[in-house]
Each structure stands twice: as structure tokens, then as C-alpha cells.
Amino acid sequence: MQAEPSPFNDPPSNFSCAEDLLNYSDKAVAEQLTLLDAVLLKRLRPHECLARERASRKTPDTVQGTICHFNAVCARVESTLLGNLNMCSSLRLRLLIKWIDVAQFLLVLKNFSSLNAVISALQAEPVFRLERLWSSLPADKMAKFQQLAAVFKTDWSAKRNEFQAGVTTPPSSRSYAGFPKEPTALKNAKRITHRRSHSDNPGTVHGMIPYLGKFLTDLVMLDTALPNEVTNKSGVRLLNFEKCRKEFEILAQIRLCQSAAATYLIEPHDHFRYWFYKSLRVLDSEDW
């Protein structure tokens, strides 16, 4: 995967490497990632999420931009932990704790896209197989990591059967981002951090950014389970309005998320953006 072009021409004078991440607060990192996600989400054209629309397009669409950014966040997390083979164990542990704490703030900001990217990167085999690193992680940080990872556990088999049976949950009974309900412990941790966040910057309005992959998966399953046309009793082939209705419900949720993303009030940080786009190379299989 090619790295995204940097919007900055010259590097800042105090630019360093992976350790530079520790110079930012957990909240600042989460906010800057959220700002990048919000820009991409607002540019998204919801109809391009449809499975048949994506299959017919030959040029990059707005969906691809969001996917590339998700992969970039995963790459940045892995690069900070694995990019320097000579990194001391204590520094690598500090970086691991840093990303877990950043993930907590991403939850507070309701940025489920970068939250999932960070958790996915930490669960990736090259990182997760560092047994000594994970064994040295404090118990409270490990518990926090497990709680954050639990947010994205979904029974895809049950969802597939739901689509095939033609049954969908009414939108009013779903969670806003389409995710399972949070564990009680996670709700409490989120509430505490949320109060701290507001006390640091009172008056800030928090939006919401979904994990787009969840919607894309739902749309692919829907497209696979239901035909585009149905045959009535007279043998006439008609458009499957039930499928269209379900697709519309999913696209409507995406539009609601776009409106929510527009409410973020976050100032861009040029130095962090330069670090994100340029400082860390993408790892390949030889590094693993």
C-alpha cells in the first residue's frame, strides 16, 4: 500500500520518529485522527457504498479513500511498535500503553473508525505475538484493552441468517452507529473520561464517526441474500422494493453519521499531520 501524499512541503524543525508520538497528549492524538476521519466521512457519497455500485466503478471512489485511511491508521500503530527493531522494551511498552489510552479517547469522541483501526492493529499477529510485551502490560491497561476490543464483537453468522430470512431490526431499536451495546464497565470508563474531556475544553461539541466497514459488510450481505428482482404470481419480474428499502435504511444511517461528523470543533495540528503522513514507513512481510 502506498503512503498518502503529505499536505506539507517542509518538515518541522523538531521532527523526530516513533517516539514523537509520546509528545502529544492522548486526547490530542485522538482528536487529530478524528478530524482526519471526519473530513473523509463528509466527502463520502453514500450511494457508492452499495455493493453493485462499487463493483461497477472503475475509478477510485470516496469509499476507497476511507478504506485507505483506515489501513493507514493500522499501519501507523504497527510501525510505532515494530518499525524500530532496536527499540528498548520499556519504550515499546510506553507506546503500547499510549495507543490503548488513545483508543479510550477515540471512544469518548465516538470515532469508531479509528478506534477499530487501533484495536485491529494491536490485535494483528505481528504485535499480538509479542508475548513479553503484553505480559508486562499493567492489569488495568489490559482490562481496558479487552473492554475496547469487545465493542466490535459481532455475530456475523446471525446477521447473515437475518438478511436471508428477510428480517431486519427497526432502525429505532439499533444503536446509532450500528454497534452492539457497550459493556457496563466500558460505559463507566467512557463516562469518566467524557467528563474529563469536557472539563479540559468546555463547550466542545462531539460528533460521531462510524466504522464504515460495518455498513459495507451489511450492504454486501444484503446484496448477496436478496435478488434485485422478484417474480409475482402472474410471472412478471418486478424490482425488489424490499431490498431497496433495506438498502435505503442503511444509507440513511450513513447520512445521519455525516451530519454528526460535521459537529466536531477540532483545530488541525500540522506537526501531528506531518508525523502521521511522513514519519512512519509501512511495514511489509520482511519486517515481521
Give me a quick take on this structure:
This protein is mainly α and 288 residues long. It has helices at 26-43, 51-56, 62-82, 89-108, 112-123, 125-128, 131-135, 139-150, 156-164, 184-200, 212-225, 241-261, 270-279; strands at residues 229-231, 237-239.
Record the SSE blueprint.
Blueprint: H1 26-43, H2 51-56, H3 62-82, H4 89-108, H5 112-123, H6 125-128, H7 131-135, H8 139-150, H9 156-164, H10 184-200, H11 212-225, E1 229-231, E2 237-239, H12 241-261, H13 270-279
Antiparallel strand pairs: 1-2
Kindly describe this structure.
With 288 residues, the chain is mainly α. The chain has 13 helices and two strands, in the order αααααααααααββαα. It has a two-stranded antiparallel sheet with strand order 1-2. α9 (156-164) packs across α11.
Labels describing this entry:
288 residues, mainly alpha, 13 helices, elongated, disordered C terminus
The average pLDDT is: 78
Helix content: 55-70%
What's the assembly state of these chains? single chain
Order of helices and strands: HHHHHHHHHHHEEHH
Our count of helices gives 13
Give a quick account of the main beta sheet: strands, pairing sense, barrel closure: 2 strands, antiparallel
